[in-house]
Amino acid sequence: MNYRIEIKWGVIFIVMMLLWTFLEKSVGLHSQYISLHPIYSNFVIIPSVIIFVLALLDKKKKFYNGSMTYKEGFVTGFYITIIIAVLSPISQFIATEIISPDYFNNVIRYSVKQGNMSQQEAVKYYSLFNYMIFSFIGAIILGTIISSIVAAFVKTKKKYRR
Fold it and tell me: Please, what is the Cα angle at 140 between 116 and 126, to 5 degrees?
């Protein structure tokens, strides 16, 4: 099987996530508005779903000649998910060490100030290693869910004769 389309869309997804991180940092969600970060970071689901829809439509058109079953769509989405998961630790490194290097210090300070955890707990929790693991596992879980839903909408509908 040819995985070019899945690799292309997996990379596009990672680039989108890095741009999203840059946007969050630019509007202050990693610093002065860090209290709003947990709310607004969830909106990344919108471009995520759009990318999966475009990816499955691309695969349907170019590989399956315009006709795709639910299973083919789901498997395509799952392969994209695996690529995203494999690339997510690198993406997390770029996001937190290059794009927003003060993020961990800011979120640790905020969590301790709010009384959510001690300094020691916050330092342990908000670490690059933990975020790499979270991003890998999160990619697998969310990617699988998104793939299952998007595949249902992108599959070719059977035409029934009367």
Answer: 25
